[in-house]
Specification:
By secondary structure, the chain is mainly alpha-helical. The chain has one domain. 78% of the residues lie in helices and 2% in strands. It contains eleven helices and two strands; from the N terminus they run H-H-E-E-H-H-H-H-H-H-H-H-H. The protein has a two-stranded antiparallel sheet with strand order 1-2. Strand 1 and strand 2 form a beta hairpin. Helix 3 packs parallel to helix 7, helix 4 crosses helix 7 and helix 6 packs antiparallel against helix 7.
Length: 262
Amino acid sequence: MIWSITKKDLKISFRFPKNFIAKRLIEPLRLFILMGLVYQSFFVLTGNQTVGNWSRANYVPTLLIGAIFYSGFNYASGRFRTIFLNDKYWRTIQIFLTAPVSKIDYLIGSSLALVIELLIPVLLYLGALHILYHVSLLDLLLVLAVLYVMLFGVLGFSLMQGAFVISNENYLFIFDYFLAAWMLLSCFYYSNLALPVRLQFLIKINPVYHAVEIARTAVLHHLSPGQMLSSALYLLTFSIVAPFLGAAFFRKMVREMGIRGF
């Protein structure tokens, strides 16, 4: 069942493979190039060698890791919004809702499809880290593992958004605002020190930020083993709890409100 879901998602995504792959490659690079120019200008114009944990030597690889996690977060958070909108307008949503498929199985299948869809840009960026900055293969495997754990948790949230897509599209703007704030607090392309002190608590309770920090340790080595373990346990808890909450919310909302705009 899980593999069938994975194949279905992949066949839909790769209907037009050239356009699909090109979008996956270019999407994270826009912010990567912009922020790269900002950091380069800062180091050149000020003569400073470091800013927080970032330096002239490591800002590019840390931005590459940010691009990987930004891309994964961006597509995972909006995945079921896109899928369910298509299903509703193609008039196949009732087939999905009546199929004897566990929502957790559906999440696993969708997460595997998402990993395969992201494989080309992620491997390209990881290859650059390995060749240009000599990041070890073991550290790169850690980055991949952390990325998948983060994706699975974010998909749980995406399932909540998918429930509104099916039952009431009128409130989707709430998710747009929430995702914008979540992305800001995830610090994909900058240090948490760049944000005001009053936001630091929200950053620390953000599991996506912890995922990015664990991955960046492969380059910066700035977290102690204790901090790494604490962040990993927090992220793992999020990835386990969020899918179950998302599935429960989805079932309750769709059962009570049904399909609207069909």
